[in-house]
Amino acid sequence: MSKWTEYLSLLPKALPNSLQIIEAIANEVKMKYGTLPEEEREEIVRRRVICNGCPFNSENSPTSEEYFELTKTHYKTRRKDKHCSFCGCELNLRTSALSKGCGIETWNENNPENKIELKWKATI
To answer: Does this model's pTM top 0.85?
Structure first.
């Protein structure tokens, strides 16, 4: 699958979440200009630290034993951005959408018999 095909395959998931994507972009802009409330900025930074070490982060998933144990395959992607291997969200956007929880939600929705604990939850 090409990188562009991967990105296009995300559109059906992105459209229903357009309000959260706008929220994330707005929070990114507020962080850049120092107008995001301190507690919200701290929450976004906390989430990013968690995601950077997560075995389901696209940089970690290809060699993650946890990912392999769950999916029985190694994660493969042509995308260059750091993203969640379960939901496909770019990590800076996912972590900036305070009304969204960890991307593991997607795994849990699709695998109700094999749910795993979220790394972080929605705060709004």
So the answer is: yes
